[in-house]
Amino acid sequence: MRVGFRAPGLPMTDASGPTLPLGRPGQPVLDRPAFERLTVAHRRALKLHCYRMMGSLNEADDLVQETFLKAWRARSQFDGRGSARGWLYAIATKSCLNAIKARSSAGRILGLPGRPPSEGGATGGPTAELAWLDPYPDVELPDIADDRPGPEARYEAREAVRLAFVAAIQLLPPRQRAALLLCDVLGWSAVETAQLLGGTTASINSALQRARTTLGERQGRRPQALRAGPDEGLLLERYMGAWQTDNLEGLVELLREDAVYHMPPWREWYFGRPAIGAFLRTVWGNFAAYRGVAIGANAQPAVGVYALGRQDSVWRPHSLHVIEPAEDRIAALTIYVPPLGPALFAAFGLPPEPVASKG
Q: Domain SnoaL-like, which positions (predicted)?
């Protein structure tokens, strides 16, 4: 790795991290206190980068730890003249690429590519052998409201967090994925990305072009307004109210006519308000009641839903819902159902039963 690796627009005195004082002659730039400040300043941003690369919360956590361990062991290679943030991103990206090589699937999914939308009830059951994309807790996000990517970045910070974006980039080959994240999300130049990933600047530009084409075909028209507004809060309130008041028709009314519905870890997915409504009617009465807790996932409105068992009258974690709003309607709804949904509750700080629940 280059000594003093410098990412675009990130000198040692920029706002992306603490200025690290040069040590006295014979002392490393990164002594233990300086390194600890570095890990605190960049942990969340690096975890988000690893999550985008991997699509997994657990793998992102592990890779951030691995990044800091490798950085500490290689701290003598950092001379303080370049960007500490860029140096850490270089280590993290290489760690992610190595981890992808070592696992069975290159990317995680929200749905099976090429599988047509379903109609009626779901009969396939949960599919544990597939690698499903995790949602990302908003409480773990860096301050994306004030994020300043490099001048060459093509995506706004909020857009590059959305569940649909992360799902789309999982379809890219790992090297293209890394190049697109470094250049189009973080704003690195093709020259700097080539220095990290290896190869020529022309090869990086070629990889970027292929990645952008694939992403454009996958995403279609990119959203124009991504800042959270009052409509999102009202939509979330209406959505939670529909679940808690047993108002299925009111919930269906919140969907756009061309809404998309996924429910990991089930293979089935649904397109359009009529098809989604027909499916929900087949499962709505499986529990006696529902309660929701508002959370945030991937910079989108989200809800943790608890269900009351009909037989034992016990409240249990049931599903985690991520909403893609479009003005005052829902454009896409991803509901992580059992067994995957309840397993995600702890990562979002949700307790094993709703607070002040009444049996």
A: 237-291
